[in-house]
Amino acid sequence: MATRAEITSGLAEILEEVAGVNPDDVAEEKSFTDDLDVDSLSMVEVVVAAEEKFGVKIPDNEVQNLKTVGDAVTYIEANH
Amino acid sequence: MSSVDVVVTGLGATTPLGGDVASTWDAMLAGRSGVGPLTQEWAGPLPVRIAAQLAVEPSEIIERVKLRRLDRAEAMAVISAREAWADSGLADAGVDQDRLAVSFGTGIGGVITTLEQNEILQSSGPRRVSPHTVPMLMPNGPAAHIGLELGARAGVRAMASACATGAEAVALGLDLIRAGRADVVVAGSTEAVVHPLPIAGFASMRAMSTRNDEPERASRPWDANRDGFVLGEGAGTIILERADHAAARGARVYARLAGAGITSDGYDIVQPDPECAGGIRAMRTAIRDAGLTGADIHHVNAHATSTPAGDMGEIKGIRAAIGGHPIVTSTKSMSGHLLGAAGALESIATILAIRDGIIPPTINLDDPDERLDLDVAAHKARTADIQAALNNSFGFGGHNVALIFTRA
């Protein structure tokens, strides 16, 4: 089981790869759209990459609830 | 003849001969070939294993994250448009975005994206298909990305007329300015189809050179031993501007875009009319549109692609529409055939030939076809005082476009 810090760091890698987000900017309280400038198409890429990386399934109706990095970490922690 | 003058104030290109206009033009004047072997693993089983690939990869120019959302054709389009825009000085001068239009095409569109994403679909399923797929494969993507970068709001038009696309996009730019719909038009075209499927398709038509052992000698328009075209990739952008708009800001002017002629053959979906009737009508229309006569045309940048079927018809056509006097060249002997982007790159070569008074050579014309009865700038660049020049582009589907550029 990955820790919250490990999941955050894994998400940071994905965000850097697909959206050019500086890993240093990634923290649990950050909003994907407002703070990290991840647009809706890139968010789809983040979700698919996260599913692969953490072995979880993130249904589309769940994605809208993932506003912050912390929301995603919590979901992945609970479901992987 | 129109009362509105249209001039060229900026040029941009990324081609097999160079990553920008200056290096491409230098290579052309030096008679260098941009054709080389295809070393990719997929090329092994193909009958054609040569192509003219970009001299500078887009990844050296465009930031990584942006590049992964662009088809290769879009990336090339953006690179050439950025250069042309900077070259025009409009970035500093400022432009009314509601009067700025884009007319930019592609012959085939985002085929590399289409095929790559299809592989992902087959191997990993639909959920793995990139959400950027559609804006990457759509044929208006290159025009739209340029419009987005420059903030063009007077319309973003996307041409598709196969190998006449680039010239038709320039012709539409002329129309838009003459009709008062824009002050500035970013015109041009892009093509990126160096991929086994398009190559196999063209090769199955027996349209491509199979001179795999001598890539640099494979593109040989009008040579008796020509055996087909050589696929090239790249993009070219031409900034068209209403002449008084350019004058008011003290812009540097390369040449005047004096006229255009567009016709269709109504003959065959791919075979050129051997009498070049549609090409002749396009050339005559363009000359008339420019307020000139055939005698005024000093130079022709020909479409001549190095195919046995196409090259000689155009020679007949030039003789009929213009006469026996112009100095003719085919820069495809060096760049390969950029398909939809050919008309843009060759417009740039025509414009620079006028500006510099020098005609780039047709290389590999070692043993001219016995029917070649016009003066071709064979092997070496030729100096010439050019007041007016014509650029021909013909495309599958029977599209014929002739453009006339004159000295500013």
From TrEMBL, chain A:
Q: What is its main location?
A: cytoplasm
Q: Which residues carry this modification: O-(pantetheine 4'-phosphoryl)serine?
A: S40
Q: Where in the cell is it found?
A: Cytoplasm
Q: Does the keyword Cell membrane apply?
A: no
Which residues belong to any copy of the Carrier domain? Answer: 5-80
Keyword Transcription assigned to the entry: answer is no
Swiss-Prot/TrEMBL keywords = Cytoplasm, Fatty acid biosynthesis, Fatty acid metabolism, Lipid biosynthesis, Lipid metabolism, Phosphopantetheine, Phosphoprotein
Q: Its annotated pathway?
A: Lipid metabolism; fatty acid biosynthesis
Can you provide one Gene Ontology molecular function annotated for this UniProt record? acyl binding
Give GO cellular component annotations, separated by semicolons: cytosol; membrane
Q: What is this protein called?
A: Acyl carrier protein
One protein family per Pfam: PP-binding
Q: Give the protein's function.
A: Carrier of the growing fatty acid chain in fatty acid biosynthesis.
Q: Which lineage is the organism of this entry classified under, starting from the top rank?
A: Bacteria, Bacillati, Actinomycetota, Actinomycetes, Micromonosporales
Q: Which domain of life is it from?
A: Bacteria
UniProtKB/TrEMBL annotation, chain B:
Catalytic machinery residues: C163 (for beta-ketoacyl synthase activity)
Q: Which residues form the Ketosynthase family 3 (KS3) domain?
A: 3-407
Pfam families annotated for this entry?
ketoacyl-synt, Ketoacyl-synt_C
Q: What is its EC number?
A: 2.3.1.179
- Name the pathway: Lipid metabolism; fatty acid biosynthesis
Q: GO: which molecular function terms?
A: 3-oxoacyl-[acyl-carrier-protein] synthase activity
GO cellular component terms, A-Z: cytosol
Name its GO BP terms in alphabetical order. fatty acid elongation
What keywords is this UniProt entry annotated with? Answer: Acyltransferase, Fatty acid biosynthesis, Fatty acid metabolism, Lipid biosynthesis, Lipid metabolism, Transferase
* Recorded catalytic activity of this chain's protein: (9Z)-hexadecenoyl-[ACP] + malonyl-[ACP] + H(+) = 3-oxo-(11Z)-octadecenoyl-[ACP] + holo-[ACP] + CO2; a fatty acyl-[ACP] + malonyl-[ACP] + H(+) = a 3-oxoacyl-[ACP] + holo-[ACP] + CO2
In which domain of life is the source organism classified? Answer: Bacteria
The family note in this entry says: Belongs to the thiolase-like superfamily. Beta-ketoacyl-ACP synthases family.
Q: What's this protein's function?
A: Involved in the type II fatty acid elongation cycle. Catalyzes the elongation of a wide range of acyl-ACP by the addition of two carbons from malonyl-ACP to an acyl acceptor. Can efficiently catalyze the conversion of palmitoleoyl-ACP (cis-hexadec-9-enoyl-ACP) to cis-vaccenoyl-ACP (cis-octadec-11-enoyl-ACP), an essential step in the thermal regulation of fatty acid composition.
Q: Which NCBIfam families match?
A: fabF, PRK07314.1
Q: What protein name is recorded for this chain? A: 3-oxoacyl-[acyl-carrier-protein] synthase 2
Q: Which organism is it from?
A: Actinoplanes utahensis
Q: What is the lineage of its organism?
A: Bacteria, Bacillati, Actinomycetota, Actinomycetes, Micromonosporales
